[in-house]
Structures are given as structure tokens and as C-alpha cells.
Give the backbone structure.
Amino acid sequence: MSFLIPCQNCGREYSAAWTWYVCDKCGFRVCLSCLGNHKGPYSSGGYKCSKCAWGYMEKQ
């Protein structure tokens, strides 16, 4: 059984086994396609989390 999880940036749904980047502090989750372009008050993409001040995106 495969669960679909939406990317919190683009909204596209991928399986739980997909390559995800998840913030180590707040849990913000983006797909590989959105790693370079997620935007928020703290970052404009890349490995720095855009949703919290201290988090970094880690591959899961």
C-alpha cells in the first residue's frame, strides 16, 4: 500500500518513498523539484528552511 504525500511548496503528490527534503527543526517538506525554489520569510530556496529561522533541509 502506497501513501501519497503532498509537497508543502508545490502541492504535487508523491509516494512516501520519494526523495524528500525535510526541515530538521520544523518538519517543512519539499520535493526534489522544489528544493531550489521554495520561498518564505527565512530563505529563497536551497538547504536553508524557508519557514523557520534555524532549520536546514535534509534528504530523507
Observations:
- Residues 42 and 53 are 6 Å apart (CA to CA).
